[in-house]
Predict the structure.
Amino acid sequence: MITKELSREVKDLARIMDTPNLVGLSYALRHPETWPEDFVWDYNNCKKCAMGLATELWKMNQPVVEKGESEGKLRSVKVTWIAKKMAIPFREARRIFWEMGPAKGVPQADINPDDIADAIDVYLKESA
């Protein structure tokens, strides 16, 4: 029955959304209806990209970087944070959450949530 299947899917989704994880984030990235009402996608803004969505979904605080710090320091701090939260290697966190534009040969502004979800899914499949 469709109702029982849907109920099981909803229960499974609730279970994976309890704690920060890549499966839940990939799902959320593909389903804007799961996003907070005021969330607007912007890959160029850490508060409005996949890291920002994870922050909102799981009520986490992104690390604070001192004013005047270099772009490299900012990137290193943010990538280290998301790598720890999602329990993935630093290299993969950097590739998925920070370097998608150059990797795809497109401007950062053209990266959309599905691109990040695709990268997460590839990582999950390859690491299984």
Remarks:
- The mean pLDDT is 87.
- The chain has seven helices and no strands.
